[in-house]
Amino acid sequence: MNVMRFFCRHRMNAGTPTRRVLLLTLVMASVCQSSAVLAIDADVKGVRGELATNIRNYLQSLNIPENADTQSYSAEVTQRVQDALKPFGYYEPDIAVSFQNREQVTVDVDHGTPVRVRSVVVRVEGAAEDDEPFQQALQASPLTGMEGERLLHTPYDTLKSRLTALALERGYFDARYRQSRIEVHPWEHAAYISLIFESGERYRFGDIFVTGSQIREERLRKMAPFDPNDRYLATDVARYSQRLGDSGWFRSISVRPRLDERARKSASPMVTSSPDVSVEGPDGKRQNFQDDIDAQERPQQATVPIDINVTPEDRHKFETGIGYSTDVGPRINFGWNMPWLNDRGDSLNNDLVLSGPEQTLTGEYNVPLANPARDNYYMRYGFKNTDRTESDTRSFESSVAFGREWRFENDWIQNAYLRTTYEDFTQGDEEDKVLLFIPGMSWSRTRTDNTRFPMWGDRQDILVEGSNNAWGSDANFLRTRLDSQWIRSLGENNRFVGRATVGATSTDNFSQVPPSLRFFTGGDSSVRGYEYETIAPENSDGDLLGGKHLLVGSLEYQRQVAKNWWGATFVDAGNAFSEWWPDELKTSAGVGVRWISPVGPVRLDIAHPFDSEEDSWRLHFGIGPEF
Fold this sequence. Notes:
Elements: H1 2-12, H2 18-34, E1 37-39, E2 41-45, H3 49-60, E3 63-65, H4 74-85, E4 94-101, E5 104-110, E6 116-125, H5 132-140, H6 153-169, E7 176-185, E8 190-198, E9 204-211, H7 217-222, H8 234-246, E10 250-257, E11 277-279, E12 303-312, E13 317-325, E14 329-338, E15 347-355, E16 358-368, E17 375-388, E18 393-407, E19 413-427, E20 430-448, E21 457-467, E22 477-490, E23 494-507, E24 549-562, E25 565-577, E26 586-597, E27 600-609, E28 618-623
Parallel strand pairs: 2-5, 6-8, 7-11, 9-12
Antiparallel strand pairs: 1-3, 4-5, 7-8, 10-12, 13-14, 14-15, 15-16, 16-17, 17-18, 18-19, 19-20, 20-21, 21-22, 22-23, 23-24, 24-25, 25-26, 26-27, 27-28
Helix pairs in contact: 1-2, 3-4, 5-6
């Protein structure tokens, strides 16, 4: 009806003369009115719960035209009610139908004696007989224990679908059902179930065929999480696709096993009768019977090739952005990324970030190794100029690092590097120029269920690095830092966020350690309520010097108050210090709001510092993901 009305309006706007428009409008309105139908509203009596709900679902799609004889639809209503009861084992109900009008009907149902299961034969044969997921599916299905119980079609269909899905997931592409039927004898209220699954041989991965790639095909093949002749797993195909996507080399990716297309039916909101039901009367005649599904033609070898079709990513990509945080104020960033430079897949990324107190230019050149998804060499370089009066820091830093990165299956990323840093700095009343050669190791891991706004996740970062005069550095030190953040939820409306950071430095001449390697705290992501990096040891004039050690912790509770809005309350504590344990921890508490925007959470916090003589509260604002 809505389609017809739209058509009428559309035609009138097309410039038709007035008289013809009026005539067409009257004709179309008459058609729309005469063909108007409404879904029927059923009042179900005699049964309740899932039986009544299923009857209403079956009748919902029944539409009776205006001026139609409602009694002529009684037979159809009766048939639909019978069909709605069969999946629950009721095959001989008594049904009375009474129409109030074409939109309302009352059905009085006596479901009668249920059909009960006399015997159940369920088993898996072939190579899958010893495959654990198939045995788990059989053990978890209520179908195997239905003997003597009321017949329900759903457990049968669920198990059958599960076995079919497992066959596709685990490479049993010649699988068939040697028997698949529910034989119902309504006249004796009995049913006989037989579900015998013949899996055939399990396929193995075959050759990988690549089309459209600008990267050497050998590199793409080595990214596969499987080897040729490994047993087929659909999850390995998905992991392969993800690895190719994570490389950044391609704009589009298709990874498919070379199989025949199989049609899929969408799920219905109604509980329907199993298509394998055979209703047998006293004369032995069967109807709607399916059994012995034909096997597909078996290839000569039980292997499945993998076809990869890719479209190269643009060779140059540019990104610009504007942001703001109370730590650095407004900032502008510009990125120039080259996802691939040659057929080896080398890449180059450059980022320029400009704000009032800090200006940073960084770059990274990556050289993937034999398995590009796991290992690569890199060169990182950068320049950073800092002028922060609140932390008494002025510094110009340039650095270049050469390193090796490993990505492990357990999500940990390991880095080993050698960094050369030159820093010209003034920190409080200390001035110096230092050249450092710093070998180091780092480990990191991030896990989330949703990168934009996770309800579960955690992140760990571990760093160990040092410098020594023995290899030409101007300072001796050994430095470590451990960061951890976690997110957990209770239900859908309660979220908990915790953070902890520990840092330590061992050195015999702290004045030669540049500000970039000293510890400061305070600000949006550490101890809120205090200005950015203003918590640290001071000299006799009150100038900040930075600390050898660091200890920071935070605990936050968030509660959802609207669809994309959350309220928050938090407690932060921490300090940077020169001894092995702080004399005190600066503490703050506050409240805030979180808005889940398309680019990630927008955070607004009001924090009260308990140990500040200058501020009674401070506003903190930030945009972007938490991890």
